[in-house]
Specification:
The protein is an alpha+beta fold. The protein has a single domain, classed as 2-Layer Sandwich (Alpha-Beta Plaits). It is built from 4 helices and 5 strands, in the order E-H-H-H-E-E-H-E-E. Strands 2-3-1-4-5 form a 5-stranded antiparallel β-sheet, with helices on one face. A hairpin with a 6-residue loop joins strand 4 and strand 5. Helix 2 runs antiparallel to helix 4. It is elongated and about 55 Å long. The two termini are 29 Å apart. 36% of the residues are buried.
């Protein structure tokens, strides 16, 4: 494990200087889960949520969040993303949804934070739109599933440590 890149030699928080880094294709995929009661799950599945199409709204919210990550997370570089995709899968036997957000670009810094932010906000949007039906929903297991590009190369979460299965 190397030194923390967001700290200078005196321990002060700094934005990482990527000026001399090579431009490479960078992709990251994050996932998370929201679990709810049967009433809320059925309302989403049947399109009966009064606030509208929950999953479509969550996808848009996730995309918008990924694009605005540098406004939310201190020291993140503003990035010109070339792809943000939010996929939400239904898990009926658990009354749950799994959200995956993939972010990509050709650039000098990675997109892990963008994928994680997109996942988080998509799940929060589902919560917001359904909280009248279930205030006990649980958002869990938000994690980086895979990333590629840059000096550190390709990372795939180990099968044994996967919180969310595909």
């Amino acid at each position: 494990m190397g030194k923390l890149t967001h700290l200078d030699d005196e321990g002060n928080a700094v934005m990482v200087d990527v000026t001399d880094k090579d431009v490479t294709k960078r992709v990251a995929r994050a996932a998370g889960k929201i679990t709810m009661n049967r009433e809320a799950f059925s309302a989403i599945e049947e399109g009966r949520v009064k606030k509208g199409d929950v999953l479509a709204t969550a996808r848009i919210a996730g995309i918008m969040a990924a694009k605005n990550t540098s406004s939310l997370i201190p020291l993140c570089h503003p990035l010109m993303l070339t792809k943000v995709e939010v996929d939400i899968k239904s898990v009926p036997d658990e009354c749950a949804y799994i959200c995956e957000c993939t972010a990509a670009l050709s650039g000098k810094t990675g997109v892990e934070m963008e994928a994680l932010t997109g996942t988080s906000v998509a799940l929060l949007t589902i919560y917001d739109m359904c909280k009248a039906l279930d205030r006990e929903m649980v958002i869990s297991d938000i994690c980086l599933m895979e990333k590629d590009g840059g000096r550190s190369g390709h990372f795939v979460r180990d099968e044994d440590s996967r919180i969310i299965t595909e």
